[in-house]
Amino acid sequence: MSPTSAVLELSGVHKTYRLGQHVVPALQGVDLRVRAGEMLALTGPSGSGKSTLLNLAGLIDQPDRGEIRFRGRIVDGIGESEATLLRRDAIGFVFQSFNLVPVMTVADNVDYPLFLTGVATAERRQRVAQVLQAVGLSEHSAHRPDALSGGQRQRVAIARALVKRPALVIADEPTASLDSHTADQVLDLMRERGHAQGAAFLIATHDARLLRRCDRVIDLRDGRIVAAAAPQEVLA
Amino acid sequence: MNLHDHPRDALPSAKGERPARALGSALRWLRFATLNTLRNRRRSAVTVSIAALGTAAILLAGGFALFTYQGLAQISARTTGHLIVAKPEQFQRDEDTPLQYGLDDVAAIKTQLLADRDVLHVLPRVEFSGLISNGDKSTVMLAAGIDPDAEFAVKGPFLRVRAGDVLTSGQHNTVMLGEGLARSLKAAPGAGLTLLASTTEGALNAVDVTVKGVFSTGIPDVDKRLVYLDVDTAQKLLVTRRVSSLGVFLSGMDATDPARTRIAAALPQLAVQTWLDQATFYKSVKELYNRIFGALGLIIGVIVVFVVTNAMAMAIIERTREIGTLRAMGTLPAQLTRSFALEGLVLGGAGALLGAAVALAVSVALLVFPLEMPPPPGRSNGYPLQVVMDGGLYGATLLAMVVLAMAASAWVARRTVKKPIVDALAHV
Lengths: 236, 428
Description:
heterodimer; A: alpha/beta; Rossmann fold; 6-stranded mixed beta sheet; 4-stranded antiparallel beta sheet; 10 strands; 28% strand; B: 6-stranded mixed β-barrel; two-stranded antiparallel sheet
């Protein structure tokens, strides 16, 4: 896949939620294109539709209307099993509160996506060791997540998202639980590893430091994209 | 990358996986399940304990029932013989006169029976009813004419001798009385009595006998009527050379059905019944115990299912967000359901193994330190409390416990693992 080819394309995507008798429009005709290797930030106030857009992009939710293409293939309306396999093989997730499995060691958490895809044990060991070394957690591979600091846990989460070499990483407020120094480390890591692997990042964030490091920033308001530009322009 | 570049399912059921990889995958899921059961150790300990108690209760109750069945089966076979050979009418009709349907050519039949490879002994039996009198008082008796030496040699001490001695072959005109009958007639060993019965021709006949001993069968109602005497004395009283039936004693209980088939083929003019055909008490007890212990097993099974269900339901609610995370990462609902079923396997399996160990320990302790059960209704003798350690019972119980625990866990998990991922991730 060339660096300019689209990993993800959303065209005229609508999504509404029902809250009791009220219908809340979360996304209203969103068009978006995420290129391979691109780091794209989603920003906007609470309720603007960032999380909904991430859910649709991560194939864990379906739009009401519109079209979603993942690597050229129309994926809105595919069955749950197919979506699961697609996520398993090509999409990584980084959550705000890490969402590591507490009973698994660091190495097992990182290994889990490879285990799911059926990668051979020897190759899994090698790739887990490589990615843990890349995130600076080799010495903690046998530790449980509760023995790590917040920054270390988020690095484990990033390692877990990147180990299967996904085409797209969905990250929801990845620095929100971290202090500024740790957040910088995590951002550097995402940027460096993402570029190295050619993975596209779609990141929902309010963090200005993170926005500055992205290739593009999408500003969402009331479920619509109101600005899509380089960080310097949006933050100016 | 194509959607189907990788196997769809990393669980061992996946097609195309090599056995070693499938085993590694299964062990990984099992380890994950085991670690999950250790998250809340107290809750898991309670679940395992209840599963262990349930397993032990089923094994002990089932083992006791088996001991009872085996004991009653042995007693039944020892009383009648493993096989009973007689004329077909003997089993089908009531006699108008004593030994109307008795066997005539006993020696020839006995020789033919002893030729079978599994037949060890053939004991004749003359059964009739009549009156027994001490001169002042007469009462009804149920008499059994036996070959004393062979009977006691084959059956062992099947009677509890309360006074005097057992009968011996060649010593005619002697009897053993049930203790209730002896009490009724005020007869002690050495006392003289008279037996009265109809002959095979319908005439009344009498013979004077001496009491050799007093016994107890353990059943008071039987002891009030039963008289043992030797076959010759019985035949002299009934004025016949016939016997009612022949009791055939085999090398073991297992030989019963094959030997029956062979003997029935060899003696087509006669009918052959097994001890089971005549063991009405055994069948009644077995039917009763099967119902009692079946209901007990059912109740215990339901309790175990509820306990496992409750424990797993709490665990699953606590882990809803994690389930959402694993689903987002590409775990199939079926994989998660199987993972929860494996947690049930760990909890149920640990409980079942612990329960089996407890049941084994109790069973062995009862062998080392015997306990006596009180006499059952209608009996005068107690019996030992023992528990059979049967491999089949243990295997079936452990398997049932594990399957129930796995099914309960999978059933509880089925909805949460299919919950929309967005909702699962938002679960607090």
